[in-house]
Amino acid sequence: MAIWLNKDSKVIVQGMTGATGMKHTKLMLGDGTNVVGGVNPRKAGQTVDFDGTEVPVFGTVKEAIDKTGADVSVIFVPEKFTKDAVVEAIDAEIPLAVVITEGIAVHDTAAFWAYAGKKGNKTRIIGPNCPGIITPGQSNVGIIPGDITKPGRIGLVSKSGTLTYQMMYELRDIGFSTAVGIGGDPIIGTTHIDALAAFQDDPDTDLIVMIGEIGGDAEERAAAFIKENVTKPVVGYVAGFTAPEGKTMGHAGAIVSGSSGTAQAKKEALEAAGVKVGKTPTETAKLARGILGS
Prior knowledge:
single chain, alpha/beta, Rossmann fold, 2 domains, seven-stranded mixed β-sheet, 34% helix, Succinate--CoA ligase [ADP-forming] subunit alpha, nucleotide binding, ligase
């Protein structure tokens, strides 16, 4: 099993005909992802050849769903057009929209996040500013390298793209059920808590790795959720122990004010909930390995 993405998922790519969309559509197809169409109103009716695989281009998300039965959209649209693209996906009621684009204005993200709620949350949003989601051996939606791990029984949820890749590689001999990069912007769709709940309910996930970072209180809220609701072992890592106070570090949401949002505060909250927290990604992987080995 897996969470939210599997071999039967039918994927469309909003922005497929752009340079980034073309590059990653080819890589996703190479990983076995069932890409059934692209969306670009200016190129509707055309097809794109990806090494012998012909992928049709549709004018709208709704048309793509009607013609292909698509249930996942991955969005590579430039930031100034991303809000409209996500709203279109929400209006079409696609079950999962994975927003890869970075640099989106916070008020745009707030707008489409609120719009999804107004529409009944029929569309799960992952991102923005995220690497996507992969169920190894089944489907890969986004920009996560598909060749750095294998199918297994670890669930991974992470704010950081590069730390997602590192953890997948560190534990490649054990493998992953699903890895989800939720993004590091101040406002995101799917949260640590959403992924933790899904992994808790997935019978083929035995252990959860959670990667957080400085800024905000998402990790503290996740710790409270773990304490009350998660019975599976959880291993954590929090990036940013050496970050200077008051500086935005990398992600737009990674900003610390006083003691609020510090790596130490998050580490303490997680450990109080029974989570083993590593000081480095490699130590975190060793903690996971030790738990599974026992």
